[in-house]
Amino acid sequence: MKMAELNQKPALDIVYLAISALYNNPNNEEKERASQWLGILQKSVFAWTIADELLHHKRDLESCYFAAQTMRSKIQHSFHELPLEAHVSLRDSLLEHISQINENTNTVIVTQLCLALADLALQMPTWHRAVLDLINRFSSTHTWPLLEVLTVLPEELESRSVRIGENRRLELLEDLKTCAPTINEFLKHCCNTNCDNMSVNIKIIRCFTSWVSVRAISLDGIHFHIVLLKAFDILVHKGEGEKQSVPGAMHDAAADCICTMLQCLEDEHQALEMYLFNNIMTLEVAYHMSVAKEDQEKSMNYCRIFTELAETFLKRIISQCNGESQPYAEQILDLVLVCLGHHDYEVAEVTFNFWYLLSEELYQTNTKQLTDIEAVKH
What we know:
Layout: H1 12-24, H2 28-43, H3 47-57, H4 61-77, H5 87-99, H6 107-123, H7 130-138, H8 143-159, H9 166-193, H10 198-213, H11 226-236, H12 248-264, H13 270-281, H14 284-292, H15 296-312, H16 314-322, H17 327-340, H18 345-349, H19 352-365, H20 368-377
Helix pairs in contact: 1-2, 3-4, 4-6, 5-6, 6-8, 7-8, 8-10, 9-10, 10-12, 11-12, 12-15, 14-15, 15-17, 16-17
């Protein structure tokens, strides 16, 4: 394996040898040589067909991972290498690879393929309403990879990891908003048909969160959304008298969902605001239960939610402190203060940014009422 630039497409057997050396050869020098050569291959125009062929052959886990990662990297960074007439064949090939995914397919490979397909959809203007095409093709047969693609699509758009112009980005966001009703129906269907499938339920919540985070799903009437209800059901679960508690990954997904909802709140969504406030207030018991069970990860999740609630409602907390009645502010502050009593510093540390923001807001406001309140307290 020479280190010079590739002038012609290497034989597939040589690629397999290099991949095997990278992952299995005990000799570090051989590993390094294989890594360098494969890096050169990935940067070459031959990587497109090599990756596609490796994925079709499915010889072993290592070659499939290398191929999926290469395909994603090429689409993300070197899409300009492909002529326009090759875009459709690349899309069809990726769709075919997605259709071959089953319950035994390694999740890392699935993620890379889904990212590749999402990045392609973002950069392929001729693929109109890609989301609807994907749902029509995979919703009844490949729920798992479909949910993954639909999750990473808004994330890739938001992360700006794909090199597209601002006009194209805005166009894609409008396209996602147009597809949102179909997404909502699909997620509802998934919830109703996969009640006991933990893995799928996690993906449902993550997908919903992803679409909400880019404002593709409207917040109007969203407090009736089945996925939001599911997220709170997971978080309010205390595990009393039950053999199995909520798995950590599912709890994380539910907490992320609620935090995202709070971050997206706007003044005109008062019904959603009160829904979130009232339901988060009920989580204090579950928080104490997580502390009693020494489940730090779940304690951290509750603390994140309580702190996000306080940061979201910060200006209203200050404005209520200016008036005579302060129960609204006190309830939220009490929740955050509860977290400060946790024995682990990392949990309490989650709240620190809120206290900084509160101090800054109080300093900036500096009204007579606030000064009087502080004087009474001290």
